Amino acid sequence: MEAPKIPVEPPKKRRIGVLTSGGDAPGMNGAVRAVVRMAIHSECEAYAVFEGYEGLVNGGNMIRQLHWEDVRGWLSRGGTLIGSARSMAFRERAGRLRAAKNMVLRGIDALVVCSLTGADVFRAEWPGLLSDLVAAGELSKEQVEPYKVLNIVGLVGSIDNDMSGTDATIGCYSSLTRICDAVDDVFDTAFSHQRGFVIEVMGRHCGWLALMSAISTGADWLFIPEMPPKDGWEDDMCATITKNRKEQGKRRTIVIVAEGAQDRQLNKISSSTVKDILTQRLGLDTRTTVLGHTQRGGAACAYDRWLSTLQGVEAVRAVLEMKPDSPSPVITIRENKILRTPLMDAVKLTQDVTAKIKAKEFAAAMAERDAEFKEYYDAYRNTATPNHPKMKLAEDKKMRIAIIHVGAPAGGMNQATRAAVGYCLTRGHTPLAIHNGFPGLCRHHADTPVSSVREVRWLESDSWVNEGGSDIGTNRSLPGEDLEETAKCFEKYKFDALFVIGGFEAFTAVSQLRQAREKFPAFKIPLVVLPATISNNVPGTEYSLGSDTCLNTLIDFCDAIRQSASSSRRLAVYIPEEGINIKMLSQDIDLLRDNFIKDKGANRAGKIILRNETASSTYTTQVIADMIKEEAQGRFESRAAVPGHFQQGGKPSPMDRVRALRMAIKCMQHIESYAGKGRDDIANDPLSAAVIGVKGSQVLFSPMGGETGLEATETDWARRRPKSEFWLELQNVVNILSGRAYPRTDETWTCYEST
């Protein structure tokens, strides 16, 4: 066959294709938007492949160039706007030959694939595919010469979070949000009628959604494919539920079942089977709810918008940095760090988990899923019920652990307290809640009949599983206002440890107690801070409980404003770390004016400017709005909206719920390590006054005192924040993807690591 006469000239700009394949997931559109705009910013051309690999096979109008304005408004949209399909043609070599030809004809030699199925095979076959196309006369040697190397970078879009080597996949937290909303909605009817509900969630081969929803909703029992229940599980489940209802007084029963749940002989366990057991054996009025595809739909949550954006940006950077012999990476995340992981390694690990489940090697399957998964599973088992006789400690190891909230309310405070109480009761410790902060301790501890210091019962804390705010009360007062009375209370109630949940005030409170140890020996006990504040300004961590709940509330607020104003992107962000000056405002107003002139039709939309409340004392929100309105000269409107305390949110987000459990239990285990030690030995250990936090790809405890402690090296006391804030790097991403005129001059792309 004669080669086509139409010559294919190597494009002046590099062309990067992006496609979504397999099941859709919230956040995919955010990833496509980020890839397109980062490619354009990097002086490349971006091409969308519509309908997944099927579009690559068919070519033609299914491979189209996308421009900057084409992806406007995509960040908040659910599903995938470029379509997805499971292509049977691409699974055959003949289909991949057609795909390779279409890519060469379009001048595309790099793909960002949101879904990994087939990507590794395609790249491995690429040289052979080009040779076959030349041999068959489909293409000439001159045509394929510029495209001898195919670079592929993977993004993982999956609501199941079933890829090994990453903490989260794009879409998984949005799906978890749908599940938690649904289960939260049945709480009231379950409580009212003392009913049981069996909820079936997605997860054919991976139980992440089931496990995290069980943690987030306080489920009584859980079925996941990685860890089937032991033989005789029917009796164990009924015994646990009976104890929770009759001995603890729990009125509602929730059982979470993954769709791939099975017993140890690999026989399917269905939601209807579980329902029949509860009905017939316990006489429990039980209903089943199969959530189905409602788990896939809807707008992406804040985390998935953040994750898809950063991973899309990183994917383009990876494409541009790859060499001919570079292995294809998949962009992953570990804790708070964007990583590049070899694609083949991640795929192999994922396949190994499925193979081990089929081989009934369940412990190995749990271990290979990832360390965090096993940690969450153990945490759930230890807190779902207080009945764990084998977990009880010896009497000399049991402790009286005080729990206090300090600072403004934040989502996750109640869940962290619930987890701490559950763990304490499981181990035999005595959990003591200090109500209404340090003033409550000093002024009302002797009140009768109800003291501000009292033990927490399991049923009381279990009811906090989805409650926002602080049920034991919180305020900003510090122990330094009356250290002597505080020390007397510590001695009176024989506190062996203090667990402080809160924001910068909590950090300051523990600092004051630590520094007063020499004068007041009662403070020579383990003092641990779990950061919980919507401001995310506690030294020693990049993540605070409540910040994700706040972000989701702000996202909902901005989406509502966007609908009202027909706005479709965040144009600018003003933060106190950079301040606001007249030059910044002038450039942003010029950009606004230019965009409104260029916008037409569907793209003629409003814009959003986000301003931190302390970014400037001169340029307030209303002042900026008035300046924009004046400069618009009637061509467009400008209005101000302040969400205020609405940002604290209602029910905590699933991320804040599950991280509260994990971190609270880590804090309890850290406190346990001091059991039986003398007061002076405790005080001499730098980690006896510590903050738990996420730093990069790790969760660790950081000492507060000493020459290298947080107080001396990482705290900006005057501004009440860390000296170094990781998220400042992201300002460049915001500026680039919004088309803002002035990126930061100290551009440092350090938000990833290679593994």
Automatic annotation (TrEMBL):
Residue limits of the Phosphofructokinase domain?
A: 15-318, 400-573
Region feature Interdomain linker, mapped onto this chain: 386-399
Please name the source species.
Penicillium chermesinum
**Residues at the active site:** D160 (proton acceptor)
Q: Which UniProt keywords apply?
A: Allosteric enzyme, ATP-binding, Cytoplasm, Glycolysis, Kinase, Magnesium, Metal-binding, Nucleotide-binding, Transferase
Give one GO biological process term: fructose 6-phosphate metabolic process
- State the residue spans of region: C-terminal regulatory PFK domain 2: 400-755
Region of interest: N-terminal catalytic PFK domain 1: 1-385
A cellular component annotation (GO) from this entry: mitochondrion
Enzyme type, top EC level? transferase
What protein is this chain from?
ATP-dependent 6-phosphofructokinase
